[in-house]
Design a protein that fits this description.
The chain is an alpha+beta fold. It has helices at about 15-30, 40-45, 95-115, 125-135; strands spanning about 5-10, 50-60, 60-70, 80-90, 120.
Amino acid sequence: MPLVFSEMSPEQVTGLWPHVSQGADEIYRRWHKAVEWVPNDVFNAIRKDRARVSFMYDNNTRIGFLVYRIFWEEFTNKKYLHIWLAYLYPEFRFKLKDYLPQGIEYLNKTAKYHECKFMEMDSLRKGWQVLLEGFGMKPKRLVYRKEI
Protein backbone atom coordinates (compact mmCIF):
# COMPACT_ATOMS: atom_id res chain seq x y z
CA MET A 1 0.00 0.00 0.00
CA PRO A 2 1.40 3.43 -0.84
CA LEU A 3 2.42 5.77 1.95
CA VAL A 4 0.38 8.90 2.55
CA PHE A 5 2.24 12.11 3.38
CA SER A 6 0.47 14.86 5.28
CA GLU A 7 2.20 18.21 5.69
CA MET A 8 1.12 20.16 8.73
CA SER A 9 0.80 23.91 8.85
CA PRO A 10 2.79 26.05 11.29
CA GLU A 11 -0.41 26.60 13.27
CA GLN A 12 -0.80 22.85 13.84
CA VAL A 13 2.67 22.32 15.30
CA THR A 14 1.71 22.86 18.94
CA GLY A 15 -0.91 20.11 18.98
CA LEU A 16 1.17 17.67 16.96
CA TRP A 17 4.56 18.47 18.45
CA PRO A 18 4.67 15.39 20.74
CA HIS A 19 4.73 13.21 17.61
CA VAL A 20 7.73 15.12 16.23
CA SER A 21 9.41 15.69 19.59
CA GLN A 22 9.82 11.94 20.13
CA GLY A 23 12.02 11.66 17.04
CA ALA A 24 13.80 14.99 17.40
CA ASP A 25 14.68 14.12 21.01
CA GLU A 26 16.01 10.69 20.01
CA ILE A 27 18.11 12.07 17.15
CA TYR A 28 19.48 14.79 19.42
CA ARG A 29 20.34 12.33 22.23
CA ARG A 30 22.22 10.09 19.79
CA TRP A 31 24.04 12.82 17.85
CA HIS A 32 24.07 15.86 20.18
CA LYS A 33 27.84 16.33 19.83
CA ALA A 34 27.52 16.59 16.06
CA VAL A 35 24.31 18.56 15.48
CA GLU A 36 23.99 22.31 15.85
CA TRP A 37 20.41 22.38 17.01
CA VAL A 38 18.27 21.28 19.94
CA PRO A 39 14.74 19.87 19.57
CA ASN A 40 13.18 23.21 20.52
CA ASP A 41 14.93 24.75 17.47
CA VAL A 42 12.97 22.33 15.27
CA PHE A 43 9.70 23.37 16.97
CA ASN A 44 10.47 27.07 16.55
CA ALA A 45 11.52 26.69 12.91
CA ILE A 46 8.27 24.90 12.06
CA ARG A 47 6.17 27.35 14.09
CA LYS A 48 7.80 30.32 12.33
CA ASP A 49 7.35 28.67 8.91
CA ARG A 50 11.10 28.28 8.35
CA ALA A 51 10.75 24.49 8.20
CA ARG A 52 7.94 22.13 7.27
CA VAL A 53 7.01 18.75 8.70
CA SER A 54 5.20 15.97 6.87
CA PHE A 55 3.88 12.94 8.67
CA MET A 56 4.05 9.58 6.95
CA TYR A 57 1.14 7.14 7.19
CA ASP A 58 0.97 3.50 6.22
CA ASN A 59 -2.59 2.17 6.14
CA ASN A 60 -3.80 5.11 8.32
CA THR A 61 -1.06 4.49 10.92
CA ARG A 62 1.44 7.29 11.58
CA ILE A 63 4.87 5.72 11.05
CA GLY A 64 7.20 8.73 11.15
CA PHE A 65 7.90 12.16 9.75
CA LEU A 66 10.15 14.28 7.55
CA VAL A 67 11.26 17.81 8.36
CA TYR A 68 12.64 19.88 5.50
CA ARG A 69 13.71 23.47 4.87
CA ILE A 70 14.05 25.52 1.71
CA PHE A 71 17.35 27.36 1.30
CA TRP A 72 19.31 29.27 -1.32
CA GLU A 73 22.98 28.61 -2.01
CA GLU A 74 25.07 31.57 -0.94
CA PHE A 75 26.94 32.24 -4.19
CA THR A 76 24.85 30.64 -6.93
CA ASN A 77 21.52 31.55 -5.34
CA LYS A 78 20.14 28.15 -6.37
CA LYS A 79 17.09 27.20 -4.37
CA TYR A 80 17.24 23.76 -2.71
CA LEU A 81 15.40 21.50 -0.32
CA HIS A 82 17.38 20.47 2.76
CA ILE A 83 16.17 17.31 4.49
CA TRP A 84 16.67 18.24 8.13
CA LEU A 85 15.16 15.24 9.92
CA ALA A 86 13.89 11.90 8.64
CA TYR A 87 12.46 9.67 11.34
CA LEU A 88 10.62 6.36 11.52
CA TYR A 89 9.05 5.37 14.82
CA PRO A 90 11.00 2.39 16.25
CA GLU A 91 8.31 -0.20 15.56
CA PHE A 92 8.44 0.59 11.81
CA ARG A 93 12.20 0.77 11.21
CA PHE A 94 12.38 -2.77 9.92
CA LYS A 95 10.52 -1.52 6.82
CA LEU A 96 12.93 1.35 6.02
CA LYS A 97 13.93 -0.12 2.65
CA ASP A 98 10.25 -0.44 1.71
CA TYR A 99 9.42 3.11 2.76
CA LEU A 100 12.53 4.89 1.47
CA PRO A 101 11.61 4.95 -2.25
CA GLN A 102 8.25 6.55 -1.45
CA GLY A 103 9.87 9.09 0.89
CA ILE A 104 12.39 10.08 -1.77
CA GLU A 105 9.61 10.33 -4.38
CA TYR A 106 7.61 12.59 -2.03
CA LEU A 107 10.64 14.80 -1.39
CA ASN A 108 11.37 14.99 -5.14
CA LYS A 109 7.81 16.18 -5.79
CA THR A 110 8.03 18.64 -2.92
CA ALA A 111 11.34 20.03 -4.21
CA LYS A 112 9.84 20.46 -7.69
CA TYR A 113 6.77 22.15 -6.21
CA HIS A 114 9.05 24.67 -4.48
CA GLU A 115 11.06 25.06 -7.73
CA CYS A 116 14.25 23.77 -6.12
CA LYS A 117 17.27 22.87 -8.25
CA PHE A 118 18.34 20.02 -5.95
CA MET A 119 17.82 18.47 -2.54
CA GLU A 120 20.34 17.41 0.05
CA MET A 121 20.71 16.02 3.52
CA ASP A 122 23.67 15.62 5.80
CA SER A 123 24.34 12.80 8.21
CA LEU A 124 27.13 11.24 10.17
CA ARG A 125 25.75 7.82 9.36
CA LYS A 126 27.73 6.32 6.52
CA GLY A 127 24.99 3.78 5.87
CA TRP A 128 22.88 6.50 4.25
CA GLN A 129 25.36 6.73 1.38
CA VAL A 130 24.63 3.19 0.23
CA LEU A 131 20.87 3.67 0.54
CA LEU A 132 20.68 7.11 -1.09
CA GLU A 133 23.04 6.52 -4.02
CA GLY A 134 20.39 4.17 -5.41
CA PHE A 135 18.15 7.23 -5.74
CA GLY A 136 20.71 9.43 -7.47
CA MET A 137 21.94 11.19 -4.31
CA LYS A 138 25.71 11.33 -4.07
CA PRO A 139 28.12 12.72 -1.46
CA LYS A 140 28.89 16.35 -2.27
CA ARG A 141 31.47 17.35 0.33
CA LEU A 142 33.17 16.46 3.58
CA VAL A 143 33.32 19.01 6.36
CA TYR A 144 36.13 19.05 8.88
CA ARG A 145 35.87 21.19 11.99
CA LYS A 146 38.02 22.03 14.97
CA GLU A 147 36.42 23.67 17.97
CA ILE A 148 38.25 26.76 19.23
